[in-house]
Amino acid sequence: MADAYRIAIVGSGPAGLSAAARAAQLGVSHILIEKTDHLSDTIYKYQKGKHVMATPSQLVLRSDMDFEAGKREVVLGTWDEQTAGHDVNVRLNSEVKAVEGDAGNFRITFADGETVSAENIILAIGTQGNPNLVRCPVDDGAVVQYTLDDPGEYVDEHITIIGGGDAGIENALGLAADPEQNNSVTLVNRGPEFATAKGANVKALLAAGDAGRISILTETTASHIGTGEITFDTRDGETKIRCDRVIARMGSAPPRAFVEACGAEFSGPDRNAFPVLSPTFESSKKGVYVIGALAGYPLIKHCMNQGHDVVEFINGNTTLKPADEPILEAKFKNLPGRKSVDEWLEFLRSSVTILEPMTPLQMREFMLDSEVRAYRRGETLFDRADPGSSLFAIASGSVLVQVDADDPSKTVGIECGSIVGEVGLVSGRRRGSTVVAAEDSICVEIPRMAALKLQSQVPPARDAITRIATERQLLQMFGSGLTKEDIAEIVDSAEIMTIKAGEAIIEEGDTGIDLYVIRSGSMVVEKMVGRKPVFLSYLPAGSYVGEMAVLDDTPRTATVRAAIKSEVIKVDGHAFRALLEKNPELLARARSDVEARENVNNFVEAKKDSFSGVVDMYSSISSFLVENGIGEATDVLLIDENLCVGCDNCEKACADSHEGLSRLNREAGRTYAHLHVPTSCRHCEHPHCMADCPPNAIHRGDDGEVFIDDTCIGCGNCQRNCPYGVIRMEKVPPPKPSLLSWLFFGSGPGPGEPEHDWIEERVAEDTPKQAIKCDMCAGIKGGPACVRACPTGAAIRVAPEEFLSVARLETEQG
């Protein structure tokens, strides 16, 4: 007859250990089942010497097992001792093959054929045994692994870590810790930010990168893993590096087949979906409970608290509240209505589209990082031009977006369940509109990092945010009084595509009729004249292309390719054609755009003989500018060296307008023919410098300028992330004496940036450095000082889309 227990706990990680210890303390008959020959296999497989963190710090630990931040070996030693001390009934080397039966009478079958029975099952098996695998091609002989035991075993190797979560960062730090091992370590992250990693890990990684111990590649994915090398798709194109071994730490997914075989249902079909659970951790299968990482809570403190609580619930404790209850109560206390924490969490989850896919347990963790607030009718959520990259979710009521800065009465309503502020989330730009409550409303403010984490961990939420952002971008572009119902078919069929730098979305001569909307990045348009590609124009984010074929069913007249890594929305041409037929105003606008592009094509064809040299020169210059970062610029300083006399008035004026420190280096930078691109900020569409600014000190102003405010802490992350070398770390000197004082009394260093010695004499040694960069002279009457100070007109500031166009060449040629 099989042994019988009240509780069987499958998995001896932090959650399972804590559950077993609580059962032992309560005197509840139990068995803790572990398939390996040791406890807590996930922690056991951490790299040797790894520092295990005890976060979140504000959460109290509720467990019969102790846990403090410390080395892996110390943590495991403590748990081994306390497991024995609590008389936990442990069964090692026992892999569970099946769980059958119903609540009160489950039968567990092991790999060796033996069985035990239990009234209740607690699944605490985690997800690490089901890692996400690399998807790119891997050559025979290439080394790819998904765990790292001892970093000390690797010497004189070129190692690439794929994944910017905690596991990937900690592996990279471990491999680069000892300089005598002489490893060359590269960490690759798909996004620009490390959204799922702990702040302390990110800080340590960036410090190691700054010290040259680790190479960090963001916005990068592996496209091919070969023997001895790896190929990447980066923001700026394809690149290869030497690589002896790849360690892929790209997260993991629940062991779905086993959990479903136990009778538990999942929240959705996605690979990363989690089981549907009640607030007491019970699954859809009565008597089967799920805790820990398998429930969507990967942090050790959360896991251990759940292990303690689930046994209390099974033992009949109906009054126990989760450990995070006081924190959440404080967040909800000022909201109208008398709801419990669980009721508020369910209300918010069920009321907001992007939160619906989350489980109650995920909602608890999510709300620890977010804020919720009630707004009175007419109260402002945020103002136009406010800094801010958080997302607002409307849980009740509705809001109004003031679309006209000069007329607040012109508004667009956003209904309950939707979101607002997605532009700031995507780009970090200042708020584009003022948003006010249309009626008494409740909104959840989701900080940028929490929103990125939400999109990373809850794919349906990511898809919902993408759909809303796509819908609004199309409505904004097409205008003509369209509603979301008008474009529903287009949005349903739209496809978001990531395009590598240099890759074409349209090839000249093709017969396709799809339309492409540039979501991020930029494109260049080229036409073959003779056997040479001639640069026609530059298309920034927010543009669309391909409408000529939609209207006329003609072959593509030009090639459109990505200037930098970009995202486009591919719109079905047939659906767009149907929309045009129903909307005469939109059709007329599309006809006008087509006519303008046909004029450019006709101009190039007509001038290809008489102005072939001019066209070739223009095309070469345009290509040069795109290659040097103009492809992602929104505003750029250019100098015509045919006119420049080298007076340096531009640098002096810049310094005199900015605390004596010039943001411009006229001589630095590259030149093609007579056109020079000096070292000056490009004010990128998606600024690299914003990617990791701890105090969120970098913003975009009303006129598109990217600037750094006084909250800068001098960490240097922006300087490291800028690919164009336009950010400096400097101690800000005291104000210089006035120009008159210098002229008449010789006081001060005179116009321009002071000599280094003058600054050093007047700035204390412990004065912290700050990041400085061009801010386009925002707030200074007359605009950029560098342009105003140029006596010959050699310096110009332009938006690339205005400068990089054959239409400009047509004007110049008469």
UniProtKB/TrEMBL annotation:
The keyword Iron-sulfur applies. It comes from the Bacteria. Residues 354-448, 478-597 form the Cyclic nucleotide-binding domain. The keyword Iron applies. InterPro entries: 4Fe4S_Fe-S-bd, 4Fe4S_Fe_S_CS, cNMP-bd_CS, cNMP-bd_dom, cNMP-bd_dom_sf, FAD/NAD-bd_sf, RmlC-like_jellyroll, RnfB_subfamily. Residues 635-667, 704-732, 768-801 form the 4Fe-4S ferredoxin-type domain. One of its GO terms (molecular function) is metal ion binding. Keywords: 4Fe-4S, Electron transport, Iron, Iron-sulfur, Metal-binding, Transport. Pfam families: cNMP_binding, Fer4_11, Pyr_redox_3. This is Fe-S-cluster-containing hydrogenase component 2. It comes from Parasphingopyxis lamellibrachiae.
